[in-house]
Design a protein that fits this description.
heterodimer; A: alpha/beta; Rossmann fold; 8 strands; B: TIM Barrel; 8-stranded parallel beta barrel; globular
Chain lengths: 263, 413
């Protein structure tokens, strides 16, 4: 994958990872609440076949402009600004976690502007009987426990192998995490529901729901809820031995599910 | 010097094993630990103590706002302040304060503070905290990254509402009101003295100095730990070309006075340790949600609580620790006088919020300590800033001719 910087019409400066054949079907991957991790085997897998673009949200990594975005509508329109800036027509939108929430909103706003929708362990709905843990009250060392099927391996993936006994490293991680989640909080705090459920009737597009089965952040009951609310009778593909971070824990299995659906 | 007698209103019946059984005194504290029948007596005892402090000559009596908090029983400090406004007639009523980003719309604060100022005859000190993350974000659901922006807008709305003599429309990002028309309005002009309780963020200092508001540093870390922070504040004062009146700043200090130093430990250590070891147990995940602090402030901060192995920090602090580190000023009147003098000079503050009730301290001990402070310590500290005598820019301007309570509270009841 190659990285480049894109400036949106609104003025956000976005880092985008790109790869795959120029003439491949365009696929846009919207990352989750934890951001784009360094180990992106999942994107590499998709790039064998598709023209893949993975933009990083403002507030995440090198992308800036988070002060320009305040509410859900701002973020959904920003998503379309990025697609426009990339010059892609009718892409397949894959949204993971927080990215799924944004992708679903984008589909409600402009259903004719995307080819297909894939939601992977997507945030954005709320069910009283399955409360989502308050990730804004987690301490840095607790994220691995909730986001991954295998917490120990997950913590390594999340922090890029950061040494938690190193004061400078922990500070940098903490600051970057505050910036990421500070931005995500505009969509997710205090309850990660900005009422996309009442708009989903508009997302008349072929859709697939993919779910890491042991997700401890957004339990699998939400996979069925998405399928129920999407107007196209979306199938659900469950990925065993994968948690909320399924695309990072089981990249081949998730890429395979996407490929089987997109063709 | 001005002294305000402050009561946090802690719940005095937290169980002995609170620390072991519960992760936090705030936000998710089990509300089965609260007993409203016992609460009836607790409120009255605490309000009586505030009135007692007024009768002993404290300049102010102080209350504050916390939510879902085992050491703060005042989700609405204005209710307590209303009671005090009726039963006292001399001391300033210091509400430190109302978390203005939480009121929807914040015109409610302009109205209630105006009511308090009018009922008390112009004795209100109005505090506008940004609010702790526990209260503002976790209990009241405000988005951390937008809290400061919402606070700024609420402040603008309240100040315009107090100043304006005609109805106006307010087209804010968080509040849209077609008819803003504050009724009633405060007695004190142009407005009651405004205090901004804050931590160490540069943004808060600039905000205070830009508007000439008092900066109140409320910590339980004591004056020694606060020195670095207040030094930073005074540097900023100099940089902005403002005068160095000590009345620009206030500090909160836990104090306990007895006849001798040994007696102070004997009388108060149990209750002050209750406060530190039970009341201050706050789950660190509630203390700093991403987005609440600016990135600049975060880079300066300490991160000791973020590690798994440091979760038990501050467990079982001892009396000796607390006194040596100045977290608590306790002892004979002479010991307390010396250390208060040190505090006042070190921090350069003209106002002290005196926390003379701590944790589960019983009423008679609280009154004993309060009386000794008022009679044998306070008079000796009064004249510490002779060059700034009469600087009342940050103090109340009550009506000379105001209604007095029918049955004044008797000193030494």
């Amino acid at each position: 994958m190659n990285a480049r910087t894109l400036e949106t019409r609104k003025g956000a400066r976005i880092r985008v990872l790109e790869g795959g054949p120029e003439d491949g079907r365009p696929v846009v991957f919207l990352h989750g609440v934890a951001g784009l991790l360094e180990d992106h085997a999942f994107l590499d897998g998709l790039a064998e076949r598709y023209r893949v673009a993975a933009p990083e949200l403002p507030g995440y990594g090198e992308s800036t402009g988070e002060d320009l975005l305040e509410d859900m509508l701002d973020f959904a329109l920003h998503g379309w600004d990025v697609v426009d800036g990339l010059g892609l027509r009718r892409p397949v939108l894959i949204g993971h976690s927080l990215g799924g929430m944004i992708a679903a909103e984008m589909a409600c706003l402009a259903p004719a502007a995307l080819d297909r929708l894939v939601l992977v362990n997507a945030l954005g709905l709320w069910m009283d009987e399955h409360p989502i843990p308050d990730l804004f009250s987690f301490l840095p060392f607790e994220f691995g426990d909730v986001l991954f099927h295998d917490p120990e391996r997950g913590a390594g993936l999340l922090t890029g192998g950061l040494d938690f006994s190193d004061e400078t490293a922990i500070r940098e991680f903490f600051v970057a995490n505050a910036r990421r989640l500070g931005t995500a909080g505009k969509m997710l705090f205090p309850v990660p529901n900005r009422r996309v459920s009442k708009r989903l009737y508009r997302a008349a597009v072929d859709a697939l729901v993919v779910w890491g089965e042991t997700d401890r952040l957004v339990p699998p009951a939400y996979a069925d809820r998405w399928a129920e609310l999407l107007p196209c009778a979306a199938p659900v593909t469950r990925i065993p031995e994968a948690g909320h971070m399924a695309p990072y824990e089981r990249p081949e299995a998730v890429a395979e599910a996407v490929t089987a659906f997109v063709g | 010097m001005k002294f305000t007698w402050f009561n946090l209103m802690p719940w005095p019946h937290l169980p002995d094993d609170f620390r072991e059984k519960h992760r936090s005194v705030w936000v998710d504290i089990p509300n089965t630990l609260y007993d409203p029948v016992r609460g009836h007596a607790v409120y009255h005892e605490y309000m009586d103590q505030l009135e007692y402090a007024d009768s002993l000559g404290f300049d102010g009596i102080g209350v504050n706002e916390h939510h879902q908090n085992g050491y703060g029983l005042m989700p609405s400090p204005n209710i307590i302040a209303a009671g005090l406004a009726r039963r006292t007639s001399r001391a300033a009523i210091c509400v430190i304060g109302n978390s203005i980003a939480l009121y929807n719309p914040p015109i409610r604060v302009a109205e209630e503070f105006a009511m308090l100022d009018v009922i008390s005859g112009g004795r209100l000190v109005a505090g506008f905290p940004v609010g702790t993350p526990m209260d503002t974000n976790f209990c009241y659901g405000q988005i951390p990254a937008l809290t400061r922006d919402k606070y700024r807008e609420a402040h603008e709305l309240i100040m315009r509402a107090w100043a304006s003599e005609e109805p106006f429309a307010f087209d804010g990002k968080y509040n849209q009101l077609r008819w803003v028309n504050c009724w009633p309005k405060p007695i004190q002009k142009p407005h009651p003295p405004i205090y901004i309780p804050g931590g160490g963020s540069l943004e808060t200092w600039d905000f205070c100095l830009e508007h000439d508001y008092n900066y109140s540093y409320l910590s339980f870390g004591g004056y020694m730990a606060a020195k670095m922070l207040l030094d930073g504040f005074w540097e900023q004062v100099a940089q902005k070309g403002k005068d160095e009146s000590p009345y620009r700043a206030a500090f909160a200090q836990i104090i306990a006075v007895a006849d001798t130093d040994e007696e102070a430990e004997k009388l108060y250590s149990e209750h002050i340790l209750y406060f530190y070891n039970r009341c201050l147990r706050v789950y660190p995940g509630f203390a700093d949600p991403p987005g609440y602090r600016t990135i600049k402030t975060l880079r300066q901060g300490t991160l000791t609580l973020l590690r798994r192995e440091n979760q038990q920090l501050f467990q079982n602090v001892t009396w000796k620790d607390l006194v040596e580190r100045g977290m608590v000023i306790a002892g004979s009147p002479e010991t307390v006088r010396q250390r208060m003098e040190e505090l006042i000079k070190t921090l350069r503050v003209g106002h002290v919020f005196c926390l003379l009730h701590s944790g589960n301290q019983p009423d008679e001990k609280t009154r004993h300590s309060t009386r000794l402070f008022a009679e044998r310590v306070m008079p000796k500290l009064r004249g510490m800033w002779p060059e700034w005598e009469g600087d009342d820019r940050w103090w109340i301007k009550p009506l000379p001719d105001r209604v007095r309570p029918e049955q004044p509270v008797e000193a030494g009841r």
